[in-house]
Amino acid sequence: MKYHLVTLGCPKNAVDSEGMDGLLTEAGHTQATTADEADVIIVNTCSFIAAAREETLGVLHELARGKREGQQLIAAGCMAQSHGELVAAVPGVDQTLSTQQWMRIADLVGGATERTTKQGQAIPVLSLQPVAAPVAAAPPLSGYADWRTAQIRRVRQTPSAYLKISDGCNLRCAFCTIPSFKGDMASKPVGAVLAEARELVQHGVRELVLVAQHLTDYGRDLGLRDGLATLLEELCQVVPETTWIRLMYAYPHGISERLIQVMADHPQIVKYLDMPLQHAHPATLRRMRRPPDTERTMALLTTMRAAMPDLALRSTFIVGFPGETPEEFRALLTFLETMQLDRVGAFRYSQEPGTHAATLPDQVRPQVIERRWHTLMQLQQGISQQRMTRWIGRTLPVLIEGHGTSDDGRSLAVGRSFRDAPEVDGQVFVWGNPPIGAFARVQVTQATAYDLWGEVKG
After folding, report:
1. Alpha-carbon dihedral sign for residues 165, 170, 176, 177
2. What is the pTM of this model?
3. How far, in Å, CA of 410 to CA of 198, rounded?
4. Which residues, other chains included, contact 306 with Cβ-Cβ below 8 Å and sequence gap of 6+?
5. How many C-beta atoms lie closer than 10 Å to residue 117's C-beta?
6. How far apart are CA 113 and CA 107, in angstroms?
7. 29, 41, 149, 280: which has the fewest C-beta neighbours closer than 10 Å?
8. Residues 223, 208: Cα–Cα separation, whole Å
């Protein structure tokens, strides 16, 4: 049977899709390049915010309208679990599979039965979970019963791969719905992470991007103290020095002196950290149900830069959170001016049903949120430009990911430096034709607010 996978949302979803991909391939199914060619279309859905849910429903409606007779459409993942009734109501969706059940995809695709349409015609459907039923946790299966022990078989390799080390979250931030359907954090055992890392490296992966909802909380449920530092030390024993390890979604209150030292000491760990801070004013952070210790965060960032002078820091913030006053917003801008972060993303606050934040008074008007978002991004663009300009004349390794040509016909490669996480950061454009999947030593000749340009050196 031919299947086509569509992945929406975050890198954690991408890992689950790769897991489904591997299970389906192992079961003898074949990946189709397009939805038109497939017998089964699988959409790994996202429900992070309203815009993500709208995108998910739009994709499902579009694919459902294009279905041919006998073709099946499965909605899997976060929105299939958090808003199962909305997903199941899309005409043409045949089955749903929750985010915690993706390990069952091969059983689902392999179990075709028949049902009768309103017109009385029998068509094949997939039998694990009827769309009329509410999405609910199913009893474990033998074998791939738990994502923490399921072997992720990456059948299509790229130079970079996401490695999910935990799922779920113990925090209960006022704006976030993730724990309501992901549950508390569950860590993948150290041995299972090491085994997956070894396999990826053996298949030629040059960068392992560690992801989780809360990376620096890793191992707490396993009884590990300073679990992320422990895991990184173990990883660096099995991953060669020529392979990058990148850390995403690390929260400041889980960063210890030991973790900073481990990051500084091991060449495999790129000097980059993604730390979603969300805001910088203590009153806003309290309403967000996040630690309001901005001074401690600033001291931590200073300590980390002292230990790793070239450290690239990325963060995300929310503008327009309920009750955000002009003074609180100015405090956020002052924080950015002071700390000079390398990369910043900003979310416009989205009032999510079921969250504590949705019940708060003083909801900020959409026009104000939009204006504040543009103000913040304009400020950060100038800061990013300054941080990028520091690299002109310096040489750094670049992981080459693609080839092309310039307008005048010259060979041009594109890749990423240690400062650039996949999909969310900028790129490095390199004159010449270095091989894809290899590291090239590139001397930087030009910088923009988001990208670098350079030439192969030696």
Report:
1. positive
2. 0.81
3. 38
4. none
5. 9
6. 12
7. 149
8. 24
**Identity at 316, one-letter amino acid code:** T
By the 8 A CB rule, do 119 and 37 touch? no
Residue found by looking up tokens 């543009």 in the block: 374
* DSSP type of residue 398: E
The whole-angstrom separation of Cα 196 and Cα 432 is 34
Nearest to 270 by CA among 297, 252, 250, 256: 250
Residue 54 CB contacts under 8 Å (≥ 6 apart), including other chains: none
Distance in angstroms (rounded) separating the CA atoms of residues 362 and 127:
47
Angle between helical axes of 257-265 and 227-238 (0-180°, round to 10): 20
Contacts of 173 (CB under 8 A, 6+ apart): 278, 288, 289, 290
Q: What average pLDDT does the chain have? A: 88
pLDDT single digits (tens) 319-339: 999 999 999 999 999 999 999
At residue 21, what is the residue type? D
Identify the helix (H) or strand (E) that includes residue 28.
none
pLDDT digits (tens, 9 = 90+) for 39-95: 999 999 998 778 888 999 999 999 999 999 889 999 998 888 888 888 988 999 999
Tens-digit pLDDT profile for residues 215-266: 999 999 999 999 999 999 999 999 999 999 999 999 998 999 999 999 999 9
